[in-house]
Amino acid sequence: MKKKLVGGYKPQKKSTTSVQGNKWSLLLMAPYLIGFFLFIILPVLVAIVLSFTNFDSITRPDFVFFNNYTYMFTEDTVFMQKVLPNTILFAAIVGPTSFILSFLLAWLLAQVPKLPRTILALLIYSPSLVGGIAMQVVWVVIFNGDANGYLNSFLLNSGLIEEPIQWLQSTKHLFPIMCLVTIWGSSGVGFLSMLSGILNVDSQLYEAAYIDGMKNRFQELIHVTIPSMKPQLLFGAVMAIVNTFQAGAIGVQLSGSNPTPDYSGQLIVNHIEDYGFIKYEMGYASALSFVLLLFIYITSKIVNRILGTDERKKKLPPKDIDENILPSMKLNKEEEDSANVAVSRQ
Amino acid sequence: MSRYQGNKVNPSHLALSQIKFYLLLLPMAIFMMLPIIYIFTTAFKPADELFKFPPAFLVVNPTFENFKMLFERMATTAVPASRYLFNSILVAVLTVLLSVVLAVTAGYILSKKEFRGKKLLFEINTLALMFVPIAVSIPRFIIIVNLGLTDQFIANIMPIIAMPVGLFLIKQNIDQVPDSLIEACYMDGGHELDIIFRVIIPMTKPAIATIAILSFQSAWGNIEASSLYINNESLKTFAYYISSFTSGNTGGIGQGLAAASALIMFLPNFIIFIFMQSKVMDTMANSGIK
């Protein structure tokens, strides 16, 4: 795997460049950059600009300074009372839960041999392969409001309830169901990354740690596994954040209406669609978009700080490993760093 | 007890001591699988079983009725089902091809060339991993309109071919390709394209497979383009069509149709992943954000 590719070779800082090379560099880079700019950077910039305007998508947008933002925080009671608290709560529940669950599942999987691991990993990963539309189909039927819904029929038969519950139309049940469904579908790329991260921790690190007196799996996890795979943890965390916010439309998909019943499952994404594509207030919708992006950015900064792989904030101790004990550590920088962490924790 | 007992992670054999892990993993795996098993069984249920009360989880007499009905029902609309399916396949194939080409070429330059702003560019791209398309669906819509892409077939493809996660993964993997191989290729009089075809692509096949899977998934399930940018029915995709008639169909026959269409959406993703899973895992080894 990684070893095979690296093969003891230490990458050089400088690579070959020439005048002819530069022209080609630009040419090869350009297609990606154009797509990246047009559909990722530019939409963000346009959202920021439009957020300061009144725009109904037909007449010219007129500049209104911070009106959209003042409206959002002072007059849009639905936003302040329902949408914002819902979004924060949803992110706070789904994000950490799906991240921790993915990590625990990945760690458990790493404790069993390859064949059962591959099969179980495939089963656990498959919900994320179902994708939005199919996911909606399944869960809508399971939580169907009449006696034919799987959950209702199960509860009725076992005598736990007297009458079928309108799961997806009830203001009480919609939100927890949204969280459950999103967590169910959350073990995606981040989960695979963390599984791979755990499996690729250098076995000599464990060996060295056991020589130094490490006794059990829990210590293994805390002192070797987690410090060695921080990059994958961070990747997993970013994916968990994306997954959480990308799932923003789930409430509308499940309940079948925007706005959701009494705004109980309304998240910022639904509010944006409500204003943008239903009420055609594009300026205000853009302001909401910008707030959402800011929200995602701040979340990721917090995660970055907690996981602490940001080198500028946390300088790793200088190389002080005895190369005779850990000869493989010369292989590449990533492993060298993790070795430093592991050794310095002892 | 401080004696080294061998590495506990990634054991090579089954052992009695692993039972506790299976006891935790199996219930989780079953919980994850239940809705998927439901899709399978319901998709093959005949009408009388769909209307059965109380609903049974498993199918007794499996049939292809639902799939037949699904396609018959679609055929009654102005555009035949095969057209939607053809559109979807074309969109998926083109998206996979283009996103791989874009990611490999850009990843190669970003990994192996020195230029001003290189580090910044990669940082912006890493930041863009967090990009949530639905957050900016309105400005994206405005941009599509201004580019004149509305009601164009490529509106299905263009917005999703630049994948930050694709560039990120391929760049991390190209970093592992030794510079000496590239230099050797230069010595032989190789061109930049020769390097990409003879060195980079052969050495990063797992990463390319991974990007292909990810872009396939995003293209196959994408309904954004069909529902927002395209009004012409004959240019819309299968995913969109399924989503348009499954919403609100939750009882009896509708349930069977919905499950059948969910299965059609799920199976390609699942089968491709089964074949590619070892390559994906290889790629993920270099997926960390440093």
Description of the structure:
The complex is a heterodimer of chains A (346) and B (290). Chain A has one domain (77-345): MetI-like fold. Helices cover 67% and strands 1% of the residues of chain A. Chain A is built from 16 helices and 2 strands. Chain A has helices at 2-6, 19-50, 67-75, 77-110, 114-125, 127-142, 150-157, 174-184, 189-199, 203-211, 217-228, 230-246, 250-255, 268-278, 282-307, 333-345, and strands spanning 53-54, 62-63. In chain A, helix 4 (77-110) packs antiparallel against helix 5 and helix 4 (77-110) packs parallel to helix 9. Chain A is globular and about 70 Å long. The two termini of chain B are 35 Å apart. The longest helix of chain B has 33 residues, at 252-284. The mean pLDDT of chain B is 85. Chain B has 13 helices and no strands.
Structural descriptors:
heterodimer; A: 346 residues; mainly alpha; MetI-like fold; 16 helices; disordered N terminus; B: 290 residues; 13 helices; 0% strand
Quick structural summary:
In chain A, β1 and β2 form a beta hairpin.
**CATH-derived topology of chain A:** MetI-like fold
Number of helices of chain A: 16
Parts with pLDDT < 50 across at least 5 consecutive residues of chain A: 1-18, 310-346
Low-confidence stretches of chain B: none
Sequence of secondary-structure elements of chain B: HHHHHHHHHHHHH
Number of strands of chain B: 0
Give the end-to-end Cα distance of chain A, rounded to a whole number of Å.
Answer: 29 Å
DSSP summary, beta strand count of chain A: 2
Figure out the total of helices of chain B.
13
Major sheet characteristics of chain A = 2 strands, antiparallel
CATH C-level of chain B:
Mainly Alpha
CATH superfamily of chain A: MetI-like
Summarize model confidence as the mean pLDDT of chain A. 79
User: Any idea of the CATH topology of chain B?
Assistant: MetI-like fold
> CATH homologous superfamily of chain B?
MetI-like
Q: Element order, helices and strands of chain A?
A: HHEEHHHHHHHHHHHHHH
Major interchain interface with per-chain residue totals: A-B, 133 and 123 residues
The number of domains of chain A is 1
